[in-house]
Write a structure and sequence with these properties.
This protein is α+β, with helices and mostly antiparallel strands. The protein has a domain of about 100 residues: Immunoglobulin-like. It is built from three helices and 13 strands. It has a four-stranded antiparallel β-sheet, with no helix packed on it. Strands 10-9-12-13 form a four-stranded antiparallel β-sheet, with no helix packed on it.
């Protein structure tokens, strides 16, 4: 499936407000949050941390082809993965070091799943991961839909391979861009069950992409997700 976009996605560095000496309006007292523009910076809050974002410098020339290509890739990945943000924060928590799980997932997709040339880019869904970790995933799995608003996942139990156990819980994820939504569960059937059903109300008649992962009983380990298919929900 092709997901194309050429829009730009802006980025800026984050600076801890407590380490910056500026003149401006600070809400809620001297230790409160700064909001709005102050000179060359803009106050904001990020994950509960008061921050300053540097204002982008005016461009003196048009963006280069390489910059435009990178902007298109960023926009493509952001559009594709934004509905999965809540899942990505959990699925990539082990890689959320000085960044969010969503940012870590976006970075992985940019590096591994974006293909194409000359700003004509697309995403290969089988290379997108919604979870990453050291717990072994199954090697054979597929999803499909035979009943309205339901997606059925089937897999071959491989308990005993490394840290894989019968009581690992399935993580099921169904992404529907037509509904701008992702339905998922972190507490699916046991690995030993080999099958599970996810209710996806409102997805009937729409194309979806699906992934399967697992988490250990103590929720300390998570498996790298695998793509289980793209199809139209019954």
């Amino acid at each position: 499936m092709l997901h194309r976009s050429a829009a730009a996605t802006g980025q800026s560095n984050l600076i801890n407000l407590e380490k910056v000496n500026v003149m401006g309006k600070i809400n809620n007292g001297i230790l409160g949050g700064l909001s709005g523009a102050v000179g060359p910076v803009v106050g904001a809050s990020w994950r509960g941390i008061n921050t300053l974002r540097g204002k982008p410098a005016p461009r003196e020339s048009d963006a280069s082809p390489a910059e435009l290509a990178q902007q298109a890739k960023f926009s493509l990945v952001s559009t594709f993965m934004t509905p999965m943000r809540e899942l990505l924060e959990i699925g990539f928590k082990e890689f959320a070091i000085k960044k969010t799980g969503t940012n870590a997932a976006h970075g992985y997709a940019l590096k591994n799943a974006v293909m194409g040339v000359d700003s004509d880019f697309y995403i290969l869904c089988e290379y997108v991961q919604v979870c990453r970790g050291e717990l072994p995933n199954v090697t054979e799995a597929i999803a499909g839909s035979e009943k309205a608003d339901q997606v059925t996942f089937n897999w071959t139990n491989n308990a005993g391979r490394g840290k894989a156990n019968d009581n690992d819980k399935a993580i099921l994820a169904v992404l529907c861009h037509a509904r701008e939504s992702c339905v998922f569960t972190l507490a699916g059937a046991f690995r030993s069950a080999g099958t599970d059903i996810l209710n996806v109300h409102g997805f009937s008649g729409h194309e979806v992409q699906t992934w399967l992962s697992f988490t250990s009983k103590d929720k300390e380990d998570i498996a790298p997700s695998i793509f289980t298919g793209q199809f139209i929900v019954a």
